[in-house]
Specification:
3 helices, single chain, two-stranded antiparallel sheet, about 5% strand, mainly alpha
Length: about 100
Amino acid sequence: MRLAFIIGAAALALAGCQTSEQSMSNAQSVCLESGLKPGTAAYTRCTNANYRNNVAQSQQAANQVAVGTAVGVLGGAAIGAAAARPHYYCSGWGCW
């Protein structure tokens, strides 16, 4: 269970590791590649829209990792709890 928690924490930390500078750089390169010129209103709208999209995708990825981590930790706890229960033998006369 500790291993699942450590892996989940590391994945959560890495999921949102795109910095705002990287997001803006990516947005600018997309707009330049589409033929827009820096300094124009269309370029500014393009970079702003792409930047917001990059941030939203990064946040969504981080949220998905957080949910996956929580499910993994809870699943591991459930399996551990089930394994810790004593096993009973049951027949037509009852269980012991």
